[in-house]
């Protein structure tokens, strides 16, 4: 079975963008690795391209570069099999090697601004995979975001980055380091641009089994969302397919395309629905009321 018709040239202006609306910057952020940021980033980027939007990506995790390697695998798979897979435009940003902290940060600010200018001229959406640590690039990305998506594993280990938890009662305490970072970035954006940052937390790698810990995490996130001001989104379940797709550079949306190396199963149908649900909750500009073609 073939994939939905991919026509990135539909309704474009001379720059290749689909509207006069400024490019919307989506930052995948979490100060802990292993939460699935890169997996969500590539699936979101490809989903938006399947909806005929131009998408640019920036992988700021310059050490691991999981998203960058995912795209390299995707290009290789596409070329070897002669497939026309949608591949987002990538801009590489390098960390400064200057010894002076002030000089290094100044160089990184310029590199970041240049990358955004480059992609904003041609893209409807820019998906940024921020590093799983508090770095200068991470702070630059968060302060530039229109939407921040924070995937968290379904455990109190990840929850601790958002807020303190009482070990006896499991009551939610004060906001923690990452919440403070996002709060500060939201204040800066409101002052400088008179705009708000939409912060969305998604429970990722959710076990299919019901458990007391799972319910406690869900209850805690709901309480914290009301206090800190983020929205909760359905995440991706714990599925082996995501690990299997990485070396191929494929996403769930490619599995029904000719040349796919994986058989499409009912589990994959459910996983696609999770991606659709995420898109609906995100309420991204320009997609209101549009049919999701997958």
Automatic annotation (TrEMBL):
Pfam family, one: MipZ
Biased composition (Basic and acidic residues): 7-23
Entry-linked Gene3D superfamilies: P-loop containing nucleotide triphosphate hydrolases
Domain of life according to the entry: Bacteria
Spans annotated as Disordered: 1-23
InterPro entries reported in the protein's UniProt record: DNA_Partitioning_ATPase, MipZ, P-loop_NTPase
Protein name as catalogued: ATPase
């Amino acid at each position: 079975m073939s994939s939905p018709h991919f026509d990135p040239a539909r309704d474009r202006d001379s720059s290749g963008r689909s509207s006069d609306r400024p490019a919307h910057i989506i930052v995948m952020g979490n100060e802990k690795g292993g939460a699935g940021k890169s997996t969500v980033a590539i699936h979101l980027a490809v989903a938006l391209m399947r909806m005929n939007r131009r998408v640019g990506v920036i992988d700021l995790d310059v050490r691991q570069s999981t998203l960058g390697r995912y795209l390299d695998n995707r290009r290789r798979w596409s070329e070897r099999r002669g497939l026309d897979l949608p591949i987002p435009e990538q801009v590489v940003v390098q960390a400064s090697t200057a010894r002076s902290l002030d000089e290094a940060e100044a160089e990184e600010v310029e590199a970041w601004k240049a990358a955004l200018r480059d992609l904003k001229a041609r893209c409807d959406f820019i998906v940024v995979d921020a590093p799983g640590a508090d770095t200068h690039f991470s702070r630059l990305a968060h302060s530039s975001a229109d939407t921040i998506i924070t995937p968290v594993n379904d455990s109190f280990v990840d929850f601790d980055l958002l807020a303190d938890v009482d070990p006896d009662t499991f009551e939610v305490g004060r906001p923690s380091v990452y919440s403070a970072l996002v709060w500060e970035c939201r204040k800066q954006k409101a002052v400088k641009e008179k705009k708000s940052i939409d912060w969305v937390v998604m429970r990722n790698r959710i076990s299919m089994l019901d458990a007391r810990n799972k319910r406690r995490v869900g209850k805690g996130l709901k309480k914290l969302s009301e206090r800190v001001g983020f929205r909760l989104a359905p995440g991706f379940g714990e599925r082996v397919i995501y690990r299997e797709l990485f070396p191929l550079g494929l996403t769930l949306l490619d599995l029904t395309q000719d040349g796919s190396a994986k058989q499409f199963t009912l589990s994959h149908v459910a996983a696609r629905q999770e991606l659709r649900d995420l898109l609906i909750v995100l309420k991204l500009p320009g997609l209101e009321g549009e049919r999701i073609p997958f």
